[in-house]
């Protein structure tokens, strides 16, 4: 686990060996501890070089060991202290990356030499933690408080060049890092080490320290959206700045203790795995990620260069594909060309055309024209004629039936959905939607392309709204019902923002445009001329219906783009939402007209009704086999819908709240609103509760049993 050999006569070269990332699991800690002791007592040795096997210094603690209270082997803090106290100089030779515990290890060395391509960082905050094995105390002593706080709070990777400027690395080199470190180690043999033991050094002084930390805390509070870890980062770094090292270490230990087994840390760590779980996709047919091969894709076409098409073009070009961008409207084409070039900063290989014929030779097409079945059907028919045989035809539709589009083509097995999220070049999520006839190879290809674009790709089945938008519908519906019953957009949004969403549901729909849903509802015959005469306004298909969104659109209130929606904006396209007295009046009149009496609605009711309705639909998605696992649903919500990571995604959240409590809540609200089927607990949830609410990673067994009974 830690290989030991003496090189160049006097240098003990210790190499951590624990593929793939040399994580510091118990055996590695033990190996390191023993190797350092050996170097200490070996009379031939006058210096030490610490490196990682196979071009990677160290990826940090082993996340699989987290949550295990009584870990065997020496604690990291002990290993690091032993190393820092060594009377012979220790030089870290950093290749690849030194992350988390790996960077803490490097900070316990007396010198750090990095390869020019190496990266360092403290990603712990993304796991609901902070660098709690001395990292929060040593880094500020080395690079100063502001730089350290930034690195610890953001969890970002710092490139070698920047690390050198900050003083985090002593040297950056292009050649063999271990050789350079050995030469360097020999040059410092016998030299005094005190100033190189970070634990012995005070932090570089900071003017206005109190004001600095006050400001930092304010900033973190406003950005953390209820996450505790970033706040703890500030507290720990403040400890480094104000306390002697040993006291700072005590504070660090105490703070870490409060986080380590917290619900938030568990949720964040769950997200870490959920993010990766999508790659191991499977289809109900039995096709799987490890048995299907992706087709190589070098060229792609994007059809329709509106909001989505532009972002998709950028994402594909950034992934190294050569892209043909097609748009029939002349002014849109010109505008898109300018916007895409700006986003690509002149890079990327993109050509533009008003003619679909330009897609003839590409390997893959992403269609992103208006959400209109008739138009899309026509385009798929044309594409099927124009494109060379074997071209994969994908659609960015957010709700429409993939199989109907497939049936317009010669090769329905080549059709899948690639559902991007706005803005498509930034949002991490990609839903890859397979229809009943999509080939496993087509799915594998879309998944692989998602990976190349840096997306979190999740394979899902074909149904209205797929996974994300299908679950969103009952959530939006509840929000509207709550307005009818007496809530305000401000109250609902505040509850959801306090929960951790960056934006409440009404601010969100103002941003994406109320007209989008209106158009869909008109097409579905829920509003507009398609509605049968004499139907009561608040009932559709014998279920409760809220026409509030339709009424807003009839008033021309589409949200930010028109300057007013659920809120008021200073101008069309304005972004700062203000309360609108018009809306208050409108709601009062609406309630009066329909004989509704406003009641006081608590934030708890808002949360329970909106979130439980969404979660309930999530269970239906699982039950129907549209998503393969709760992890997949949670990844969709965290990466596509900004569900707060420290809450782990809706299904994980349900497991933390307790399935029995969610069931009870749904039962209660369904009794109060029997005309709302989305509040009726689904049978899978009942069954899970009846089976004693197993932990989330055991749900699949209940799902399987449940499906076989259906
Ligand atoms: P958009 O209205 O901004 O853009 C559509 C573009 O397609 C327009 O520029 C239009 O001129 C062009 N177009 C129409 N017919 C065409 C044809 N025959 N050939 C070439 N271009 C044609 O629409 P947006 O928002 O970009 O949506 C596109 C698709 O993406 C829709 O299916 C939508 O449901 C889906 N989507 C939208 C999201 C959003 O947040 N806007 C999110 C995810 C999916």
TrEMBL record:
It is found in: Peroxisome. It catalyses: (2E)-hexadecenedioyl-CoA + H2O = (3S)-hydroxyhexadecanedioyl-CoA; a (3S)-3-hydroxyacyl-CoA + NAD(+) = a 3-oxoacyl-CoA + NADH + H(+); (3Z)-hexenoyl-CoA = (2E)-hexenoyl-CoA; a (3Z)-enoyl-CoA = a 4-saturated (2E)-enoyl-CoA. One of its GO terms (cellular component) is peroxisome. Pathway: Lipid metabolism; fatty acid beta-oxidation. GO terms for biological process: fatty acid beta-oxidation. In the C-terminal section; belongs to the 3-hydroxyacyl-CoA dehydrogenase family. InterPro entries: 3-OHacyl-CoA_DH_CS (IPR006180), 3-OHacyl-CoA_DH_NAD-bd (IPR006176), 3HC_DH_C (IPR006108), 6-PGluconate_DH-like_C_sf (IPR008927), ClpP/crotonase-like_dom_sf (IPR029045), Enoyl-CoA_hyd/isom_CS (IPR018376), Enoyl-CoA_hydra/iso (IPR001753), NAD(P)-bd_dom_sf (IPR036291). Residues 300-462 form the 3-hydroxyacyl-CoA dehydrogenase NAD binding domain. This is Peroxisomal bifunctional enzyme. It comes from Merluccius polli (Benguela hake). PANTHER family: 3-HYDROXYACYL-COA DEHYROGENASE (PTHR23309), PEROXISOMAL BIFUNCTIONAL ENZYME (PTHR23309:SF49). Residues 465-569, 606-693 form the 3-hydroxyacyl-CoA dehydrogenase C-terminal domain. Keywords: Fatty acid metabolism, Isomerase, Lipid metabolism, Lyase, Multifunctional enzyme, NAD, Oxidoreductase, Peroxisome. GO terms for molecular function: (3S)-3-hydroxyacyl-CoA dehydrogenase (NAD+) activity; delta(3)-delta(2)-enoyl-CoA isomerase activity; enoyl-CoA hydratase activity; NAD+ binding. Its EC number is 1.1.1.35, 4.2.1.17, 5.3.3.8. CDD domains: crotonase-like.
């Amino acid at each position: 686990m830690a290989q030991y050999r003496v090189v160049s006569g006097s240098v003990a070269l210790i190499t951590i060996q624990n593929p793939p990332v040399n994580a510091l699991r118990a055996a590695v800690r033990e190996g390191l501890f023993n190797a350092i002791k050996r170097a200490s007592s070996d009379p031939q040795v006058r210096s030490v070089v610490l490196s990682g096997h196979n071009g990677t210094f160290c990826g940090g603690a082993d996340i699989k060991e987290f949550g295990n209270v009584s870990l065997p082997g020496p604690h990291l803090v002990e290993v690091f202290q032993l190393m820092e106290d060594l009377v012979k100089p220790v030089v870290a030779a950093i290749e690849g990356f030194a992350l988390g515990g790996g960077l803490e290890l490097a900070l316990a060395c007396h010198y750090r030499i990095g390869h020019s391509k190496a990266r360092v960082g403290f990603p712990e905050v993304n796991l609901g933690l902070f660098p709690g094995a001395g990292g929060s105390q040593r880094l500020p002593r080395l690079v100063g408080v502001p730089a350290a706080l930034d690195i610890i709070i953001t969890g970002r990777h710092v490139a070698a060049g920047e690390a050198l400027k900050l003083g985090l690395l002593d040297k950056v080199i292009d050649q063999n890092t271990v050789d350079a470190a050995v030469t360097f180690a020999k040059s410092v043999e016998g030299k005094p080490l005190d100033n190189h033991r970070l634990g012995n050094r005070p932090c570089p002084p900071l003017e206005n320290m109190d004001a600095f930390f006050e400001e930092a805390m304010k900033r973190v509070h406003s950005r953390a959206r209820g996450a505790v870890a970033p706040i703890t980062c500030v507290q720990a770094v403040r400890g480094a700045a104000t306390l002697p090292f040993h006291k700072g270490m005590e504070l660090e230990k105490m703070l870490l203790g409060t986080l380590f087994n917290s619900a938030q840390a568990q949720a964040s760590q769950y997200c870490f795995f959920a993010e990766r779980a999508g790659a191991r996709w499977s289809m109900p047919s039995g096709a799987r990620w490890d048995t299907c091969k992706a087709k190589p894709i070098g060229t792609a076409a994007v059809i329709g260069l509106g909001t989505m098409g532009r972002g998709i073009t950028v994402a594909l070009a950034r992934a190294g594909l050569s892209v043909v961008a097609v748009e029939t409207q002349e002014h849109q084409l010109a505008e898109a060309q300018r916007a895409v070039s700006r986003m690509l900063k002149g890079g990327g290989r993109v050509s533009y055309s008003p003619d679909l014929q330009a897609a003839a030779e590409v390997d893959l097409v992403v269609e992103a024209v208006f959400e209109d079945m008739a138009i899309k059907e026509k385009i798929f028919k044309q594409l099927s004629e124009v494109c060379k045989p074997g071209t994969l035809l994908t659609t960015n539709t957010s709700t429409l039936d993939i199989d109907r589009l497939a049936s317009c083509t010669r090769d329905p097995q080549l059709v899948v959905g690639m559902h991007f999220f706005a803005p498509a070049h930034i949002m991490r999520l990609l839903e890859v939607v397979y229809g009943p006839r999509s080939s496993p190879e087509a799915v594998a290809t879309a998944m692989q392309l998602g990976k190349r674009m840096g997306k979190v790709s999740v394979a899902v089945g074909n149904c209205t709204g797929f996974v994300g938008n299908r679950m969103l519908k009952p959530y939006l519906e509840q929000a509207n019902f709550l307005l009818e019953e007496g809530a305000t957009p401000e109250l609902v949004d505040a509850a959801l923002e306090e929960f951790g969403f960056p934006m409440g549901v009404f601010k969100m729909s103002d941003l994406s445009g109320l007209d989008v849903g209106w158009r869909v509802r008109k097409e579905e015959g829920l509003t507009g001329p398609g509605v049968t005469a004499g139907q009561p306004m608040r009932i559709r298909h014998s279920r409760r219906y809220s026409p509030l969104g339709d009424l807003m659109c009839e008033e021309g209130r589409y949200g930010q783009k028109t300057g007013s929606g659920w809120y008021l904006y200073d101008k069309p396209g304005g972004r700062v939402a203000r309360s609108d007295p018009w809306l208050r009046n409108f709601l009062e009149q609406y309630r009066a007209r329909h004989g509704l009496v406003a009641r006081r609605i608590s934030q708890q009711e808002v949360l329970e009704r909106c979130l439980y309705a969404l979660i309930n639909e999530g269970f239906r998605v699982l039950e129907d086999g549209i998503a393969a696992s709760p992890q997949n649903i949670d990844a969709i919500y965290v990466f596509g819908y900004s569900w707060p990571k420290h809450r782990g995604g809706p299904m994980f959240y349900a497991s933390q709240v307790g399935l029995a409590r969610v069931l009870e809540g749904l039962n209660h609200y369904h009794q109060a609103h029997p005309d709302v089927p989305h509040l009726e607990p689904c049978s899978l949830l009942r069954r899970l509760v009846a089976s004693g609410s197993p932990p989330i990673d055991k749900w699949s067994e209940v799902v399987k049993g449940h499906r076989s009974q259906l």
